[in-house]
Amino acid sequence: MTLTAETTSELAGALAKVGLELGSPDPGLASSLPGPMVNLAGVDGGVPVLVAAVADKPAIQADSIIQSIGGAISRVRPELALRPMDPVADLNDLVGSVGAPASVFPISGNGEIIGAIVWSEDRRSSGPDQAADAVRAAAGGTISSMSANASQLTRLRDVQLSVTVELGRTSMSVSDVLSLEIGSVVELDRAAGAPIDVRVNGTLLARGEVVVVDDEYAIRVTEMIDPDRG
């Protein structure tokens, strides 16, 4: 996949919808952005073409932000398979994973640079074996175990899933339900300002906050739920 101005423009728009800003390429950013970094790779045909990274600081909620970045990348380039990678000491450890030449785009939140996207300018400039080996080294081998299933998973991309946003729950007696009328107030089991649940086919996937995008309600994901913890 060749990096184009159209691609970066679309990605900037997708990131803006989750409150993040994509800056202009900065070759010196790899040396100036402090680590450690949480990150994920975008793989096309078994070849890594981009790496997204966020500085792992307590005040940043890096895990949530990297998930938001991954969602933006998927909206712009749904053909990419996103693979989580092990944390690294700094951005320099990731630049070589996509081969050369590569562009480093800063990502800002609330006016502060918090991460970056390293995108290969031309995937042909690095052979598949060389680039894949570099990513496996940076990821501690996490990508190789999933690559075999990537082509099978692409068959499911168009399957529609039911996504439900749940503000809260309560239980009511039959008599209370029958007494409901216009103007009735139903109290829920959720405190004001608490994150709301995002469920996919009934399974809790994430939590987030309500935002307004183009005069319509939307959800900004602030936490991804570990299925083992629920």
What does this structure look like?
With 230 residues, the chain is α+β, with helices and mostly antiparallel strands. The protein has 2 domains: 5-156, Chemotaxis protein chec; 163-224, Surface presentation of antigens (SPOA), CATH 2.30.330. The protein is built from 7 helices and 10 strands. It has helices spanning 5-16, 29-32, 62-76, 92-95, 128-139, 144-153, 174-178, and strands spanning 21-22, 37-44, 47-55, 81-88, 102-109, 112-120, 163-166, 196-200, 203-213, 216-224. A 6-stranded antiparallel sheet has the order 1-5-6-3-2-4, with helices on both faces. It has a 4-stranded antiparallel sheet with strand order 7-8-9-10. A hairpin with a 2-residue loop joins strand 2 and strand 3 (47-55). The chain is elongated. The two termini are 37 Å apart.
Which tags fit this structure?
Surface presentation of antigens (SPOA), four-stranded antiparallel β-sheet, Chemotaxis protein chec, alpha+beta, 230 residues, six-stranded antiparallel β-sheet, 2 domains
Helix and strand layout, with pairings?
Elements: H1 5-16, E1 21-22, H2 29-32, E2 37-44, E3 47-55, H3 62-76, E4 81-88, H4 92-95, E5 102-109, E6 112-120, H5 128-139, H6 144-153, E7 163-166, H7 174-178, E8 196-200, E9 203-213, E10 216-224
Antiparallel strand pairs: 1-5, 2-3, 2-4, 3-6, 5-6, 7-8, 8-9, 9-10
Helix pairs in contact: 1-3
Report on the biggest sheet: 6 strands, antiparallel
- Report the strand count: 10
**Which architecture name of the largest domain does CATH use?**
3-Layer(aba) Sandwich
Q: What is the 3D form?
A: elongated
The whole-angstrom Rg is: 20 Å
- Overall CATH class of the largest domain: Alpha Beta
Q: What is the name of the CATH topology of the largest domain?
A: Chemotaxis protein chec
Q: How large is the share of residues in beta strands?
A: 25-35%
- Name the poorly predicted regions: 123-148
Q: Please report the number of helical segments.
A: 7
Helix content: 25-40%
Mean pLDDT: 77
